[in-house]
What does this fold into?
Amino acid sequence: MADRKRKIPLIVYVTENERETIQKKMELAGSANNYSAYARKMLIDGYVIQIDHAPIKELAREIGGIGRNINQITARANAMGNLYAHDIQDIKELMKEVWHTVRYTLLSQR
It folds into this structure.
């Protein structure tokens, strides 16, 4: 062992489920019997995907506000027993705003 090319050990602790997942991925990669080779390959060549959820959170916030406006119109219609043409128009405009916001968010993510 004194002739070892790699002399620095790296230790990582995992749960039983994580270990099983790693084992399955090792099998899929064709290195089911050599954890060191698999771990080395993943640590050096693997990559982590980070997703920015901020635009989706902002979209959800905006749609939530629009939904509250629609609920207010609905509550007023239920309280009065009538739904006026301008209420319908307001709802249509709010829905246009929802679709515009969704399209803008999706297109800006490309």
Remarks:
- The helical segments are 16-29, 35-45, 54-80, 85-108.
